[in-house]
Design brief:
heterotrimer; A alpha+beta (about 250); B mainly alpha (about 230); C mainly alpha (about 200); B: about 230 residues; mainly alpha; 10 helices; about 60% helix; C: about 200 residues
């Protein structure tokens, strides 16, 4: 039998050792995991223009992602009225770094609509073509979904999209991220009609009727697909003041 | 008194790899399989087996935590006060799991994202805790390491078998490689193939309940092949 | 209030910890042989989930997060603190119940130690963090999740009591059937997926 004193000493030693070990590991790898998270987000952003990159997106490596971001991507953070925030203003919101890549769109989602800020990435192809990459957040079946949408320089046609999710069912809802054939359908669809009215892109269960403004649904994942429709319809509209101003 | 003698005798045996040590590893693979016989650690077995890749990462993580916690607990077994035994074991496990989480976060971010909360649930994976209580508290680190290895592998194998069926039948993929399905990205395109034109992936297989069915069939097969495991009650 | 009720119902039936996430399966399968014991374990789970969830929420918000009292990111201690809270709360509850109500202790007591390693408890806390609930929501989530688990284990125990008299292939007896049944109940609960009570 151990005395109370020896138990207390044992527990104290153990907790100290354990927390020191974990604190050491955590701080040693902190920068690495932060970089990983940022890189993951950057890669997802580039996923929206995956068909317009100068290299193959599937085999892109981390250095190339960083390289594209520093040389070919211009970043802006917008208010809901379309005006731009300065770097300091973004940092004041708690996003260290002050760039669009530092903005946490899931955190923005929780703010009242009028106070949100919107990250915008402008990707310039080496040939000179410009793509505007917009971000949107919404709700899937289980939890949040989000995505990046690239608009061509006519500000009407989609050049590609990339979606991600927190907890959609693998093989069903998760197809919005994994099924590249489905994602490719968005390329060439339009978010404004000929007259310039906002239409967004609709995910239609049973198959798209108008391939210009609709894409096929995902069987077994109607709610996630509806979530995508809703997210695009609401989320892309936020950028309208800015898109109208250029 | 008799007990201490036995204990001393045990300590005196040299470290070797004989029949007894081999049994420590092979026993959990068959007669004492953690999942199909002892019914331990089911939760994570169900959640992460939608794909082979996740299952493999999980299996490696569990083997690491199992061996690590077994060795540490067994090395400290004489120092651990029995009154706070459980919480000390839990802290050891939780520390190792946090190490796994931090490692994944730093070196395999994709897997970290996909496994999310289920890495944390290794802590309450009853296999780990069960082996500490049943084996590591009474044996030398060397034997405990073998025991942890055996149980971790026995668990991992079932995980991989379940994931194999779920990923292949549910998505037509293995380790993310597209094998069979509609569309030209698959190796066998069911839209154009003459032989496999009838094949449709079964969406239910990627859902949680199907893991239950696959394990039930595994148990059936295992017990039919090894009748001494049949539940007579 | 409507939002909280929504979370309660959602976590109890739609995102059922036992039948939609399959958490706490070890004790779910091991202790569901009779309705009486299942009832006791289920109650104990509601109890412990309802207590640990708000405590873990406070730990996460005030100690571990960057906006907490230490203003550093201490989330690497999350697993250890959560499991320590769960283990010590279980022990504390056990002692309090023993003192206050011996009758309750007799029916709940033997299940309490089992609960420490019940993944539903730790899983619930980890889900709460990942879903970024606030205090009220985490209480509703804890109670709802516990209630859902309770309903699930009592239901499966009732089915298993009935199935004892069925002629099942020897290799499928006991465990095999329990797995099949849980799978089928999970399928039934899948039918509730996606219901949103806010727009009801």
């Amino acid at each position: 039998m151990h005395s109370t004193r020896s138990i207390v000493i044992f527990v104290l030693i153990m907790t100290t050792v354990v927390s020191l070990l974990l604190a050491f590991l955590s701080s040693a790898w902190a920068q690495r995991s932060k970089d990983n998270a940022l890189l993951y987000a950057k890669k997802a952003t580039l996923g929206a223009v995956s068909q317009h990159l100068d290299m193959d997106y599937a085999s892109i490596n981390n250095d190339q992602v960083d390289d594209i971001f520093s040389n070919q991507v211009e970043q802006k953070v917008l208010r809901m009225d379309g005006t731009e925030l300065t770097k300091e203003e973004v940092e004041a919101l708690g996003y260290a770094g002050g760039q669009a890549e530092n903005v946490d769109i899931l955190k923005e989602m929780k703010k009242p609509e009028s106070e949100r800020v919107l990250p915008l990435f402008i990707y310039k192809k080496k040939s000179g073509d410009k793509f505007y990459i917009l971000s949107a957040t919404g709700k899937g079946l289980w939890d949040v979904i989000w995505g990046c949408v690239a608009v061509e320089s006519d500000l009407r046609t989609l050049a590609g999209v990339s979606f991600d999710h927190k907890a959609e069912t693998p093989g069903l809802g998760a197809e919005i991220k994994d099924n590249k054939t489905w994602v490719k359908q968005f390329t060439g669809t339009k978010i404004y009609d000929e007259q310039g009215n906002y239409t967004s892109v609709y995910v239609r269960k049973g198959g798209a009727k108008d391939p210009d403004y609709e894409v096929d649904g995902i069987s077994g994942a109607t709610i996630t697909a509806n979530g995508v429709s809703e997210m695009l319809k609401r989320g892309l509209k936020y950028y309208e003041p800015y898109l109208k101003s250029i | 008194m008799a007990e201490t003698q036995v204990l001393e005798k045990k300590v005196a045996t040299p470290i070797s790899f004989g029949k007894k040590e081999r049994a420590l590893i092979t026993d959990p693979l068959n007669d004492n399989n953690p999942i199909t016989v002892q019914v331990l650690g089911i939760c994570s077995a169900l959640a992460v087996t939608t794909g082979m890749k996740n299952a493999a990462v999980m299996a490696v993580a569990v083997v690491f935590v199992c061996v690590g916690s077994n060795v540490i607990t067994s090395a400290l077994r004489k120092a651990i006060p029995s009154q706070v035994r459980m919480i000390v074991q839990l802290v050891i496990i939780a520390t190792l799991v946090t190490v796994v989480e931090l490692t994944l976060k730093a070196y395999a971010f994709e897997s970290y994202k996909q496994l999310s909360v289920f890495i944390g649930l290794i802590i309450t994976n009853c296999i780990v805790m069960g082996r500490l209580e049943a084996f590591a508290m009474a044996n030398r680190p060397y034997e405990s390491a073998l025991d942890g290895l055996g149980n971790g592998i026995g668990y991992g194998i079932i995980l991989l078998i379940v994931a194999f069926f779920r990923e292949l039948l549910g998505k037509g993929e293995l380790f993310g490689m597209k094998l069979i399905g509609a569309g030209d990205i698959y190796a066998i395109n069911t839209e154009t193939s003459d032989i496999f034109g009838w094949y449709v992936s079964n969406g239910l297989m990627v859902q949680f309940p199907s893991a239950m069915f696959v394990i039930a069939v595994l148990i059936w097969a295992h017990r039919a092949w090894n009748p001494k495991l049949v539940d007579i009650s | 209030m409507g939002e909280l009720a929504n979370i309660f119902i959602k976590s109890a039936f739609i995102e059922n910890l036992a039948l939609a996430y399959f958490l706490g399966m070890c004790s779910f399968l091991a202790v569901s042989k009779s309705v009486k014991t299942a009832f006791g374990l289920g109650l104990a789970v509601i109890f412990v989930l309802g207590i640990t969830m708000p405590i873990n929420w406070m730990i996460e918000t005030y100690l571990l997060s960057e906006n907490g009292v230490f203003s550093t990111d201490l989330t690497f201690l999350r697993f250890i603190l959560f499991i320590a809270v769960i283990a010590s709360m279980v022990q504390l509850v056990e002692m309090v119940v023993e003192k206050m109500s011996p009758a309750l202790y007799n029916s709940l007591g033997i299940f309490l130690p089992l609960i420490t390693v019940n993944c539903a408890i730790l899983g619930g806390s980890l889900f709460m963090v990942s879903k970024e609930y606030n205090f009220g929501e985490s209480v509703a989530f804890g109670l709802g999740g516990g209630f859902g688990w309770f309903v699930a284990i009592v239901a499966i125990a009732a089915i298993r009591e009935k199935i004892k008299y069925s002629n099942v292939p020897p290799a499928m007896r006991g465990l095999g059937m329990a797995f099949l049944l849980t799978g089928m109940m999970g399928m039934a609960f899948m039918g509730l997926m996606g219901i949103d009570f806010v727009n009801f």
